[in-house]
Amino acid sequence: MNDYELKILELKKGVKISLFLNERLIGEGFGEIDGDKGILYDVYVFKEYQRKGFGKILVKEVFKELIKKFKVKNFLVRMVMKGGQKDSLLENAGMGILVYKMGFSPQIDPYQLFSEENIKNIEIIPEKDIYPAGYQITLATAPYILTAIVLDTFSQKPQPEKFYYRFVSHKNFIEWVLENKVILGNINYYLKEENKEKFYNFLEIKNG
Question: What DSSP assignment string belongs to the chain?
Answer without folding.
Answer: -TTEEEEEEEETTEEEEEEEETTEEEEEEEEEEETTEEEEEEEEE-GGGTTSSHHHHHHHHHHHHHHHHH---EEEEE-PPSSS-HHHHHTTHHHHHHHHHHTEEE-S-HHHHT-TTTEEEEEEE--BTTBPPEEEEEESSTT-EEEEEEBPTTT-SBPPGGGGSS---HHHHHHHHHTT-EEEESSEEEE-GGGHHHHHHHHTS---
